[in-house]
Structures are given as C-alpha cells and as structure tokens.
Design a protein that fits this description.
The structure is a homodimer. By secondary structure, chain A is an alpha/beta fold. Chain A is built from ten helices and 13 strands. In chain A, strands 2-1-3-4-5-13 form a six-stranded parallel sheet, with helices on both faces. The longest helix of chain A is centred in the C-terminal third of the chain and has 21 residues. Chain A is globular and about 55 Å long. The two termini of chain A are about 30 Å apart. Chains A and B meet through helix 3, helix 4, strand 12 and helix 10 of A and helix 3, helix 4, strand 12 and helix 10 of B.
Chain lengths: ~300, ~300
Amino acid sequence: MKIKVAVLGYGNLGKGIEKEIINFPDMELVRIFTRETEEELENYINKLDVLFLCVGSATDLPKAINRWGKLFNTVDSYDNHKNMEAHLSMVKKIAETHKKTIITATGWDPGLFSIMRVLFESVLPKAKAYTFWGKGISQGHSQAIRNIEGVVDAVQYTIPKRQAVVEVKRGLQKQFSKFETHKRVCYVVVDVGDPKEQIEKEIKQIPNYFEGSDVEVNFITQKELDKKHKKLSQKGLVFIKNKNVGSAEFKLDLKSNPRFTASVMLAYARACHKMHEQKQFGVYTVFDIPIGLLVKKPSVDKL
Amino acid sequence: MKIKVAVLGYGNLGKGIEKEIINFPDMELVRIFTRETEEELENYINKLDVLFLCVGSATDLPKAINRWGKLFNTVDSYDNHKNMEAHLSMVKKIAETHKKTIITATGWDPGLFSIMRVLFESVLPKAKAYTFWGKGISQGHSQAIRNIEGVVDAVQYTIPKRQAVVEVKRGLQKQFSKFETHKRVCYVVVDVGDPKEQIEKEIKQIPNYFEGSDVEVNFITQKELDKKHKKLSQKGLVFIKNKNVGSAEFKLDLKSNPRFTASVMLAYARACHKMHEQKQFGVYTVFDIPIGLLVKKPSVDKL
C-alpha cells in the first residue's frame, strides 16, 4: 500500500513536490489542490495519509492548518521563526484534539539546519553553532519589500560576509551583529514616478527583516529583474568549533531551493504516516523525529 | 537530580569522558572502573543511570554488554560494521529481557556519519552519499597490523584520494573500489631481525582491512613512531549530490578523535536516561533517537 498524499498550494513548493515525488516510489500523489479547488478537500476525508501544506507561511499556512489539520495529517515548511512558539502551541491543540499527526517547520531552515544546530551544540558543548545563509534569494525578505506601496516587484539576495565566516572558522566565539554576518542586496522595480529615495529608506527600516542590516538597494526594470534575478538556487552553512576537540560543518548548495524543500517534506511525510499509524498524535518538529523514520526502513549497512 | 554515570575502561575513550563531562553539567561521574576494578561494578546496581562501555570494540565490548547490559543502561561506540547485524540482535535480547535501554554504535562513524548518510539519501534520493575518512589514524587498522607476529607497534593513516573526492563533488554516481577512494599509509616497528618483506606482504593481505587497498608500508623505529605518529586528530566527510536539486556535505575536523567520540557518547547518555525513564527498553542506534533527546531540552530558538 502506497502512502497517499495530496498537495494544497501550487506555487514553487507545490510544484516541487509534484516533480520530486517520482523519487519516492512508496508514495502516491492523489491530487493537487489550488486556492480555487481547496473546498474539494472536504471530499477526501479518510482518503489521504498526508496532506502537504504548500501555501504561504505568513498568513495562509496558519489558516490552512486551522482548517485542514483537524481532518488530515499534515506536513508543512512553516518558517516564521519569530512566531514559532505560539504557532507550535496552536498546532499542538489542533493535532491532539483531532488525533492527527502534524509535522511542522520542515525544510532546510527551519529543518535540516535546526537539526545541525542542536546536534552540533550537543556534541561540542561550550561552543556555539553559527549559521550563514546565501548567496541566494530569500523569499521572505523579497516579499517584505514587495509589500511596500509603490514596489512592483523585488528580489533580495542574502550574502554571507567573508570576514565573519573566516572568524567563525577560526573558532572565535563572538556575538556578531546582523550587520557583521550578512549583506542584503535588493533589486527593486517601482512604479514610474515613485520616489526611489523614499522607498529605499522604507526598505532599510523594515523591522526584523532589514533594520540594523547591511542593505544595498538597486532599482532596475521588470525586464532586467525577470531576466537576471529569478534563480531558485540557494546556499547555506552551519559551523561549530571547539578549539580543544574539533569542528563540525554542514553545507548545502542547492540548485533549486523549492525542489529541495519539497524533497525534505516528502521524506518527513514518511515519518508522519508511520507516527500516525503508531498513534503518535500531536505536533512534531525535526527535533522530535528519529532520522530512521525518513526512510522506508533504515539499513544496518548505513551505520 | 543529576544523571549518574560511570565509565568502564580507562583507555583514550574513557579518559575522554573523564575530561569532557565537565561540559555536561547535568551529569555526575560516579566512578571509573578499570579492568582491575571491574568486579566492583556489582556494588553499583541501582546506583547508576548510565554506564559507558569504553573497552575495546572487537572482543571486550560484546563481553561487557553481555555481562553489564543486564544490570545497567549502557552507551557504547561499537564500530565493527561487519558484525553489526548480529551484534544488534544479541544486544536487543539482553536489553529487552532485562528492561534496560542500550544505545550502541554511537560516536562519529558509526554515529554522526551514519545519521548523515541516511538523512542525505532520504532528502536527496536517487543520489548516493559518499564517505571519506582522513587524513587521520585509524585505530582498527593500526591494531590489525599490531596483531601480526613480529610487529612491535604500528600506526595506519587513512588518506582520502583527491581524485575520488573531486569526482564525487562533481556529482559522479560511481561505484568506487577501495583502491580508488583511500590510500593507507602504515608506519611499522618490527623486532630486530624480522623479515620486513614478509611482514609487508602479510599486512597487504589482511582481509577486510587491507586486501584490495592502496597500501604503503614504512618501517621505522619505535622512537620515531612515538615522536611523530601518536596524534589523535582525525577528519572525515559525507557528501551527496543530486545534479538537479543540489548537494549536501557534512565535515568533521577533529583535534582529538577520542575526546569527540566521548562527547558524542555523553550526549547520547542523556537520551539513554530519558528513554529509560519513559520505559523505552531495548537496543537503539543513532537512527532511532530524536536529536532533541541529546540536549536537556530542545529550544524553539534553534528551530
């Protein structure tokens, strides 16, 4: 019996699951639901093992979990770090009340990078694990710019600063500021006649996202943006060093950020299904799930 | 209440636990038992939460588990890949019969590297995860040489071959031979008058360890060996690449192999204790244990 899955949301991530599921032969994609066909999910109760929630993290995802988490086991890639605690307790209540298994905040960060931070600091205590993102486009930061009035389109590259990486690799246990670790380079398309200086100022003041960061804003045309800045690649690094014992490093170099995130979600869907069969109801993150549940059956050969 | 632990075996690994436990303030080292005082462990029944088995993997460890696994929860770094399956079923029986929690084969390989192999192949299926060891001394291979008659002392460096690493990083999904992936450089001290040619031939024919490998044998004096080749550093790499989606990489650069292995065992002792409190009896490997159990309490901040 294959694991029956469906997807809600047909953006880059939903498309990623559609593409990557071929590499998960123990799963069957029953259907993809868009915003327009979402209502029809009602007809699939008891017909799905796992529902992938591939809608926007900021507002759509909480709504989707609130509605569909009562009816289906779900896997998502919620990534709003700031709101994580409230999110988890909201989802916990839903999952426990309705006896569902919900795996939230998978993907690579949160997700694999979270695993590495906790693993690294547990086996090399006294040292701190540092995370660097990029060079690559941050969807969240790009969206934050697009939300500004007068902005037609925007892309934001996160770029780790060489100096900070070098210091971390040397084993410095330093408290870096946002400004020291990453540079944020923005490409922005504005309506004709809109005041660029004003928009640049607004971008640099967006709290959480840009305030206090090293931000460069470039105004370009939509044509140039579409041509040069719609790549899906992304990179990242988690690094730890204890000078007496040693260092550990985890690096990702992604050609397609959404396809990789989709793959991670597919692997965690296996865990979701198995855990639900074991009556493990509730909300789970990558911290709670043994790696062995991500494969059909872990092989002793891999030990 | 601190987690009460003890150590059996006072070689490099046992000493590593003695050194590193200071970084695990939730644990208390009750006592270290050597071969001479091993008997006295009988007096510690119900007085320990976890016993670290730091005796030799090849023959002493199975004996120690057979005896002490019936009386204590244990954590070890068993590393005999070839015999893993039989080992696990032997230990499973002991742990289940005596309601103990036994975590076996922790450390970095098996251990963290095993986690990465399974994790990488689950999130980037279709690709194969490759492991490279070194440059560093392999204790198992060094011991295999020392077992030859006429050998007084020996050290074996495992060195990854650049060409293989380059090919793997390029994304070649190739079936490498042992000869292609690593070079094995041996420094050997022999008794005066022993036939060096004969010993070199014997080394190169040791099954599993050296047969089929690219082996270089150097004969040196004990003085030179002690001076130049008793370092505890080690390195290693797990790498995977799926050309369409991306690559993932995990790298260790250890100043002290035994101190790092000890740290990993200490982190897994937390899991061992928590799992036993939850009445999770049986044998567990790194595949079965959520990363969140390695810390006192996983923090939402790390997600």
